[in-house]
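Example A, followed by Example B.
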Amino acid sequence: MDSGLPRSGRREKVELHLPTGVTLASVPDRSLDDLLRAGELDAVFSAHPPASFERSDPEIVRLYNGYESVERECVARTGIFPIMHVVGPRLSP
């Protein structure tokens, strides 16, 4: 399975039904890691870390410095472990 992170050209396996105002742009010739390193993406949520992060690129960092303590606080507060599929940004109105 390819997340689009290491290689370009990932295609969705199911039809997406995006909310009004949300658009999806396909970038067939660049990977998510390429876009992240170029500053064209602010963040990537993925099951696997970007290759640039694994190579210790100083420009590619975790969203939270102390992510383990943030996860523990979330579990203590909500009783839910924040796996990737239930974490999302809160957008300002």
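Example B, a separate protein, is given below in the same form.
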Amino acid sequence: MIKEHLDEIHERMHLACDKAGRKHNDVKLIAVSKTKPLDMIQEAHKAGQLHFGENRMQELQDKMQNLESDEAIWHMIGTLQTNKLKFIAERVDWIHSPFKQKHLSEINKRAAEHNRVINILLQVNISEEDQKSGCKPSDVDALIDFARSCEYIKLCGFMGIAELVENPEDVRPQFKALKELLDNHQHKNGGNIELTELSMGMTNDLEVAIEEGSTMIRVGRAIFGERNYT
């Protein structure tokens, strides 16, 4: 069943890429397995899925340790707890959610302990909702400058979470604004700053996100089913 779900999502992604005149491999699918057991991740991996995302740091740590694969690429996409970064720094490949200098500093510190570079995306609050994390667009310049001094992180772009709406067209301006923010900071590229990635779009709005330039789509329920919080 999971393979069929993955095929359906890839078909949607390919159609959106075709509509936008983009190559299919321009966009990565991150399978978000929050609350789901390891055997479901194993099934997805067996079907060819390589990128996996988690919202909770403890769950990410457990799954990284227990999935027997050197090919899996792990993404931390949820709220950061700086005191727990030490538990994931040895293995995590991407962190999508830093939005403060203290986040960048702690990631850099923990990556240095393992002598490895971690890819990061700055989380920008594109919906301007108080309950959502992320920096303001006006904070991005200073964060990029600070990241440049962090030897063990590579700043690759931005992540944004759009409003949850019924009509995906309603959030197109939010995705468009994040792409413009990325484009407007290309002059900052160099060294460990390589702004090429946009993590935006989920199950309901992935087509619009791809049309507006997303390079990473985060999908959970449409692959693994409804989450179990009990």
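On Example B: The chain has eight helices and eight strands.
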